[in-house]
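Quick note —
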Amino acid sequence: MANAEHGGRGSTVDSGSADTRTGVARAVLWLVAAVLALRQMAHVLRLPPGERLTDLETWTGANGADGVNGVLHVKGSLYDQEHFTGTPFAGLVLKPLTHSAEQALGVAWTFSTLLLVAVLGVVAARALPGPISRRSSLVAAPVAISLLMLSLPVRNALTTGQTSIIPVLLVLLGCFAVRGQRACGVLIGIGAALQPTVLLFVPLLWFTGRRRAALSTTATFVAATALTWAVMPHDSWTYWVHHVAGAGLGARPDGLANQSLHGALLRVGLEGPLEIALFLALAVAVIFLGLRRAVRYARDGQLLLAVALTGCVAVAVSPTAWQHQLLWVLLAMVGRAGTRARDRLAWPAVVILVMTLPGTVLLPNVPSLYPLRDNVPLLTALTAACLVPFLPRTSEHFRAPVPTAYAEPVPARWARIPLLPFWRRVLSRPNLLLEMLVIRVGYSAYSHIRLEATAGRETAEAHGRTVVSIERALHIDIEHWANHSIQHAEWLLSFFNFYYESFHFVVPLTILGVLYVRRPADYRWARAALGFATLLGLVGFWFFPLAPPRLMPGMDFIDTVHGPQDLANPDYGPMTQVTNQYAAMPSLHFGWSLWCGIVIAVVAPKLWMKVLGMLHPLFTVCAIVTTANHWVLDAIGGATVVGAGFALVYVLAGPRGIQLPEPPAPRAATWGAKAMPAGRTGSGSGASK
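Predicted structure written out below.
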């Protein structure tokens, strides 16, 4: 009894501390959501009038395009100037805004949009398909609002002053907030009157047994459209007939901003009747597959996922789906895909990255990848609607995916290591898609920060002279001698030029690929060390911009790779536009090569492999010095950040070595059965030890 009481008190204490941690985390997340909202509002309102709420000012402002009155002020058709792209019903609703003062309208519109986003996040969080833990339900709302604030559709809607958030919110309110099918249909019908593709929710409602809501949606849409026809017949004819439900309005449909099947087909060069026929055929197929899956998940109890998939179908089959209309894709992250824990985060991560970052960040700037890069949101919507195998709630893995296998920690020399005991060594490979996206996004961020980390030419050249002075004091100023000596050995010059340009990315990526396939645990160790070294390198670029030898005036260095540079001109040619030429200290060219050598020396099983691996940093340091791209001290700096990267991994996560978890102890023999020897299974002669 005493033990039971003691255990009860311990459970109460543990539960209380867990609730406290959850409460603190929830408060922090709400603070983050509030800060993001305030930041978005401040960003919009600080923009100059010509860049702030551009669509809203064109509609309601005192002066629209070409110095004429705003679209909603004009007595004629809304579509005469082709600046208004909404439905006639939207124009009818927005007409009263023309009497508002421009500044007051901008503030009120931005604040109202942020409020709608917050409501949308709360409704979506409460509609998550169960079962979910209490802790997840408490933090779901601030996380959802934060993701919405960061998403490209919301940011675009805030900047342009668009109304695209309203139809999404009306659908969610109709499906999850109001009582009664009639009220549900009224809200969704109003959303359809504002955005006609919302009518795709009618078959979803019908085939999931909410037929009264489907009929109410249709009736509300017809009533709102008929009212608009009665009040604005010319505009209604122009929108529905002349522009084919708005398909011919707005920017060019073949622009990158149009993320629909129609826009993608136009971008690949199709046009005319062939393009229209192919678009209609693909649209029918997507509607059939997407709505069929949506109905299945709605019947499974995942109505929010069904709503998101229907919205993704609407994005794909709409003649025009601009960036601010892609919010449905973000909602699709609520689907659970993957039976293993290591794969569970892949789909939400993909959706979040696609909805928060441009395609140029997600995919390399390679011409063969342009069709993918230019249509990333569309491909994500199509994948969600038609391909991703989301788990049904009846699956045993819906709530409890297959757990990840972890290695037992290896004792370190110091008692306080690792500093992050929760950073456990994973034995299995990470999800490949997620890993490739993280590496690509990380490198894009690195390139952007590196490009911005410059303090000007004078500072970089002053730091260059300081480096020369230090090297002369240490008697390691060999750059000029090496650079000029190699000019007499043309074959060696060609070799080092080729080595400098060709192996910087190939060798590290090859090593990561081999480790990923053959040594997953070592892959994570090596990747973390490389990541820390690169981050430390960025610190050096930012605080110590340094001109390389080839860009130091008056020192007579020969740029063997890029050709002669006009040092009298601050712009040294196209290289300046794509890279920061003063990011020389530390030399990550050498640092990454040293990382390769260390990893091969530690992991490779044979001596000749280790020796061959260490030749790579040797050739690299010769190449960077002889081609006048780095100082000797730059190489020392690169070695320093790589050593610090490996040291940080050791301090935070512990030693590299792993211990496999011990197999479970054999169960005691039951009555009437023989005890089984330890270390054997009941599989006969093939049992493992």
